[in-house]
Design brief:
alpha/beta, Rossmann fold, GMP Synthetase, Chain A, domain 3, eight-stranded mixed sheet, six-stranded mixed sheet, 15 helices, globular
């Protein structure tokens, strides 16, 4: 098999052959992925969201036009462009446009409030923020205004020292913007992009292969950084993961092949596009396989089942939470679904129900993390059912996986549990501006320490066992307890805060906060939750809060740290007591 590092952006096999194809059949830049799909299936719907339907030819035209607008705004290769837009064709066209001219997308979680947003904008050193005025219930313009006085007047500013421009997407004169902001329409006009081959910016040429305007298109290579993905870990704040065109495009290709996506299939994914499960495993996987991506701005099981039926979706993507909500919804039995397969990060019991009750008999399981673009291993639709439902996954082609016994400082024997470590083309280039964290995450010879537990069997199949890290998962969101604790400590009445994850029947885990108040202060749970909800994303807000005198009774470590294991057991006991009442 050809080494992926030696692959060029070519496609010289039958694009409708969706068996395990050679790696040199995989386009390795985002613009090459889109160009191939637009040339091969121009009239096929690329993205469907509500009433918005865009073919691959139209998507490419829109991306070309957006690239021209970006150049007029001053965006150049290497610039970091924060993108805050909900799921739909607009996010997709901007993603292709930004990465196509060699700039880097900073994926902004659309649930972010002021504290989260300010951190990501500053840590990423984003020069541009392109935002919708509102994403669902989140008024992003108001959120930006609360960060500090800078956006109200002139940028950059003390609170946002790297941000040179805030661009508001909707061309709605009724949408109030500040003097220092601009509208997307100020840089565009209706004549631009009507014919992609004629899209020209003064002084620039158009790349004939990809149709992306500007000389910067020539500098985009598979090794170029395409995305900065923020991921929560055990540290206080998220880290910016640097992902390449090669890592994302190849990962999307192999995931699509193993899922069984074929040209003309219809792939339903509600995974947020600001996550790699959305950008890589939904947006790029659909384009690599030339399937239609059907998405929603917000997941709700009832409407999702209706869309799956109405759009005749052949595949869907989800995790435990999404799958269980679909399976257990009262509308499910009366829906006439035509699902053939699915990509689901879930237990064997959930995978079995997906196959039997939703009809997705080719369902596959996957394991990965943002630092690995994200898929490390995945089962394949053509494998025996008992292998797929057991979540025994083969590493992606060209990716090495080993199980490391940290205590013995050596590779663990076959069948033994240890830390999953990964090496190959899918591993991140590092954490942005954080060399120490990069050194902590990767060995000197290139192995990514995932912090997760797994087992490799004699056939080289990986089974994910659990997480070594303290991070827990709320639905599809990774949550760092330390991040929530730091925000809670900003409340004047809070002396100490410790957060653990506890089981939840719908979201798998939710935050449980133990709070010790400062002397002389009183605080109601509802007031604290309301205060925090204004500062962090909703999935980080604790579902349960318990006030304590102190944490001494639960035991402290020698370094005076709270023993989280004791708090986890205390939280579980508290929930059992509540359930018994």
């Amino acid at each position: 098999m050809t080494a992926l590092n030696d692959v060029t952006d070519t496609f010289d096999t039958d694009p409708f052959d969706r068996t395990e194809v050679p790696v040199d059949a995989c386009p390795l830049t985002t613009s090459a992925v889109l160009a191939r799909a637009a040339a091969t299936v121009p009239d096929l719907e690329a993205v469907v969201c509500g009433d918005d339907r865009v073919t691959y030819a139209e998507l490419k035209r829109r991306a070309d036009s957006a690239a021209v607008v970006l150049r007029r705004m001053g965006v150049r290769a290497g610039d970091h462009v924060a993108l805050c837009v909900g799921n739909g064709p607009r996010w997709v066209e901007l993603f292709y446009a930004i990465t196509g001219i060699g700039a880097v997308v900073v994926a902004v979680n659309t649930r972010y409030r002021s504290s989260d947003l300010a951190y990501v904008l500053n840590d990423s050193q984003a020069s541009f923020l392109i935002t919708a005025p509102r994403v669902l219930s989140n008024d992003f313009l108001s959120t930006i205004r609360t960060i500090g006085p800078g956006p109200d007047s002139e940028l950059p500013h003390l609170e946002l020292p790297y941000l040179a421009s805030i661009v508001v997407l909707e061309d709605d004169s009724a949408t109030e913007i500040e003097a220092g902001w601009t509208r997307w329409s100020e840089f565009s006009d209706t004549s631009v992009g009507s014919r992609p081959e004629e899209v020209v910016v003064e002084g620039d040429a158009t790349d004939g292969a990809d149709g992306i305007a500007g000389d910067d298109a020539a500098v985009v290579s598979p090794a170029s950084i395409s995305l900065i993905q923020y991921t929560s870990g055990t540290t206080a704040r998220p880290k910016g993961v640097l992902l390449t065109h090669r890592g994302m495009c190849a990962d999307a290709h192999f995931s699509a092949v193993r899922m069984g996506l074929r040209a003309g299939d219809r792939f339903h994914s509600v995974r947020p596009f600001f996550h790699v499960a959305g950008s890589t495993l939904s947006v790029l996987s659909s384009a690599q396989s030339m399937a239609t991506l059907v998405t929603m701005e917000r997941f709700s099981a009832g409407p999702a089942l209706g869309i799956l039926e109405r759009e005749r979706c052949t595949h869907f993507s989800g995790n435990d939470t999404i799958a269980l909500m679909l399976l257990d919804h009262p509308d499910r039995p009366r829906r006439n679904l035509v699902l053939r397969g699915a990509w689901v990060a879930a237990s064997a019991a959930v995978l079995k129900r997906v196959a039997e009750e939703l009809g997705a008999s080719e369902v596959v399981a996957g394991y990965g993390q943002s630092e690995a673009s994200p898929n490390v291993a995945q089962s394949a639709w053509w494998e025996p059912e008992h292998v797929r439902l057991a979540s025994a996954m083969l590493p992606q082609p060209g990716v090495e996986v080993r199980i490391w016994d940290d205590a013995a400082t050596e590779q663990a024997p076959t069948g033994c549990k240890g830390e999953i470590q990964v090496r190959g083309w899918n591993v991140m280039s590092g954490y942005l501006n954080n060399p120490q964290a990069t050194r902590n995450a990767c060995t000197s010879d290139g192995w990514l320490r995932t912090g997760d537990l797994g087992i490799l069997d004699e056939d080289g199949r990986l089974t994910f066992v659990g997480r070594l890290k303290e991070m827990f998962r709320v639905g599809g969101e990774n949550v760092s307890p330390v991040e929530i604790e730091e925000e809670l400590l900003h409340h004047p009445a809070v002396r100490q805060a410790v957060v653990v994850g506890v089981p939840d029947p719908r979201l798998i885990e939710v935050p449980f906060a133990f709070i010790s108040l400062s002397q002389g202060h009183s605080l109601e749970e509802a007031a604290l939750v309301a205060w925090l909800r204004e500062r962090v994303a909703g999935f980080k807000v604790p579902k349960y809060v318990r006030f304590m005198e102190d944490f001494e009774e639960l035991g402290m470590t020698a370094s005076s740290k709270v023993q989280r294991g004791g708090l986890g057991r205390q939280a579980q006991k508290y929930l059992e007591e509540m359930a018994a009442i």
